[in-house]
Automatic annotation (TrEMBL):
GO biological processes: endoplasmic reticulum to Golgi vesicle-mediated transport; intracellular protein transport; protein localization to endoplasmic reticulum exit site
Statement: the UniProt record of this protein carries the keyword Repressor: no
GO cellular component: endoplasmic reticulum membrane
InterPro entries assigned: BAP29/BAP31 (IPR008417)
Protein name: Endoplasmic reticulum transmembrane protein
Protein species of origin: Kalanchoe fedtschenkoi (Lavender scallops)
Length: 214
């Protein structure tokens, strides 16, 4: 029994050392514990732990009984002392074994949580980097769009000034055409007046010729 307990405690200590230091054995130990904690593994582990605890409590009860018997007898019995020493050693080893098993369980749990936390932090860093990259890309696109808008505004201003020039020229041409139209109307009126005068002169000449003929 004692040799078995020493073997189990040595195995547990080796497993704890493997979990504490980052070596290839650590991955194997974590994989083994992951498999143990799946399916019926936790139930079997709890059953074994409860059995060991009950045996430890039985050993403690035996130690108490031996101490009472020695106290009542008032004499030293070598057999009872040896039995009490063996029971105390077994109880101590079983308690230490349960303690190391609890340590292994907690170490495995914290290592898994640490790995999940690191994965989450790595994912968050990747997202922040991608966000920064996209932000930089958007900022470059925004700058390009702003430059394009500025160039378009300049073009619009140039077109507006050109349009104003063209509008002024069109108004000047329209005023010139109005002037020419008024001049043509004046010429027509003058032409009409000249025609009337010509007709009057002709009628006067015809009247004068008629008088001479008489």
């Amino acid at each position: 029994m004692i040799q078995l307990l020493f073997t189990v405690i040595g195995s547990e200590m080796a497993l704890i050392l493997a979990l504490l230091f980052k070596t290839p054995l650590r991955k194997l130990a974590i994989l083994a514990l992951d498999k143990v904690k799946r399916g019926r593994g936790p139930v079997v582990a709890k059953t074994v732990a409860a059995t060991v605890f009950m045996v430890m409590m039985s050993s403690v009860w035996s130690i108490v009984e031996i101490q009472q018997r020695l106290f009542e007898a008032g004499a030293v019995n070598p057999t009872d002392q040896v039995l009490m020493a063996v029971q105390m050693l077994e109880a101590s080893l079983m308690g230490f074994m349960l303690f190391l098993a609890l340590m292994i369980d907690r170490l495995h749990h914290y290592i898994r949580e640490l790995r999940m936390l690191r994965k989450t932090m790595d994912a968050a860093r990747k997202q922040s980097r991608s966000f920064d990259d996209s932000k930089n890309g958007h900022s470059e696109e925004l700058k390009a769009m702003q430059e394009e808008v500025a160039s378009l505004k300049k073009k619009i201003k140039g077109l507006e000034s050109e349009c104003e020039v063209k509008t002024g020229e069109a108004r000047a041409e329209e005023a010139h055409s109005d002037t020419l139209k008024k001049q043509s109307e004046g010429f027509l009126q003058e032409h009409g007046r000249l025609l009337e005068e010509n007709d009057a002169l002709r009628s006067q000449l015809q009247a004068g010729e008629a008088k001479k003929s008489f």
